[in-house]
């Protein structure tokens, strides 16, 4: 049960249309309604090719998005898209792990995204590396970071642990400034990008059912985390209350928006790591 705590320095923002990380809940159903054929979730397949550091194609023609992680991005035909640092290295890392291999696919939430890609955890199905978890290996190498969704939270705790180990050792992306952890004071420089921001929550409030975690004294300009009433009810029940996070040092991840200063919409608890 979430504790309601209202403080006068917080205004009541109208965040209609500002949902942070958006999951298209009707993706597959909408495709079917339009007569678009969607793939079936499969349990095993042979790898035909590697698209980038977190996407591959099976011999069956199915495209698989390695759920739970985000690797450095390649343009892949997108106009004016700049290659992220270490994108080629990340693709090579996935190639070394998975190219030509038979993989076992497992699912811990939504199975198919709005682009008709399978959303799966991958393990090597045979050979001396049988049982090797591909996502875990990429995180340990520092070739990806954790990127979870409210409808796909399986194994996130384990993935965060592997990410922390790689970051502490400064492996891969964690030795490059492009992927550095931001502070609340520098978050405004990175609007429109996915970031990890670390700092202390100085104030909390719940206003009209929406939770706010404020990292500064001025809610109009300082970095804030917002949690919608729906997400508080659906995904945060049983977790720490909004009020209990006041004074805690945390690491939060998500897409930075600009709304009364930089803001991340937290859709599920795994986006916020309590450090102390």
Structure description:
This protein is an alpha+beta fold and 276 residues long. It is built from five helices and 14 strands. The chain has helices at 27-33, 87-98, 134-140, 156-168, 229-234, and strands at 44-52, 55-58, 63-66, 68-70, 102-106, 118-124, 145-147, 194-200, 203-207, 210-214, 224-227, 249-258, 262-265, 272-274. Strands 8, 9, 10, 11, 12, 13 and 14 form a seven-stranded mixed sheet that branches. A five-stranded mixed barrel has the order 1-2-3-6-5. A two-stranded antiparallel sheet has the order 4-7. It is globular and about 55 Å long.
What is the average of the pLDDT values?
A: 87
Helix percent band:
10-25%
Helix/strand structural class: alpha+beta
The CATH H-level homologous superfamily of the largest domain: Nucleic acid-binding proteins
Radius of gyration: 20 Å
Q: Report the uncertain regions.
A: 1-37
Largest sheet: 7 strands, mixed
For the record, give the distance between the C-alpha atoms at the N and C termini, rounded to a whole number: 22 Å
Under CATH, the topology of the largest domain is which?
A: OB fold (Dihydrolipoamide Acetyltransferase, E2P)
Indicate the CATH class of the largest domain.
Mainly Beta
The global form is: globular
- What's the architecture of the largest domain in CATH terms? Beta Barrel
Total DSSP helices: 5
Number of strands: 14
* Number of separate structural domains: 2
Tell me the β content.
Answer: 25-35%
């Amino acid at each position: 049960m979430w504790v309601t705590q209202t403080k006068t320095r917080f205004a009541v923002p109208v965040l209609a249309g500002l949902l942070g990380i958006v999951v298209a809940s009707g993706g597959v159903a909408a495709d079917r309604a339009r007569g678009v054929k969607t793939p079936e979730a499969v349990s095993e397949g042979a790898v035909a090719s590697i698209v980038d550091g977190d996407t591959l194609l099976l011999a069956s023609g199915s495209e698989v998005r390695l759920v739970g992680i985000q690797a450095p991005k390649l343009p892949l035909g997108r106009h004016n898209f700049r290659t992220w640092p270490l994108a080629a290295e990340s693709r090579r890392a996935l190639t070394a792990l998975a190219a030509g291999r038979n993989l076992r696919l497992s699912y811990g939430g939504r199975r198919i995204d709005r682009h008709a890609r399978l959303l799966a955890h991958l393990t090597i199905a045979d050979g001396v590396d049988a049982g090797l978890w591909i996502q875990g290996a990429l995180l340990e190498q520092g070739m990806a970071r954790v990127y979870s969704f409210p409808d796909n939270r399986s194994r996130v705790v384990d993935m965060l642990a592997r990410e922390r180990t790689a970051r502490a050792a400064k492996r891969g992306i964690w030795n490059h400034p492009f992927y550095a952890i931001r502070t609340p004071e520098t978050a405004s420089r990175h609007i429109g990008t996915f970031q990890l921001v670390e700092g202390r929550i100085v104030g909390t409030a719940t206003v009209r059912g929406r939770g706010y975690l404020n990292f500064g004294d001025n809610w109009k300009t300082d970095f804030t985390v917002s949690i919608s009433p729906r997400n508080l009810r659906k995904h945060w029940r049983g977790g720490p209350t909004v009020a209990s996070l006041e004074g805690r040092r945390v690491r939060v991840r998500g897409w930075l928006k600009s709304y009364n200063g930089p803001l991340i919409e937290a859709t599920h608890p795994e986006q916020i790591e309590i450090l102390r």
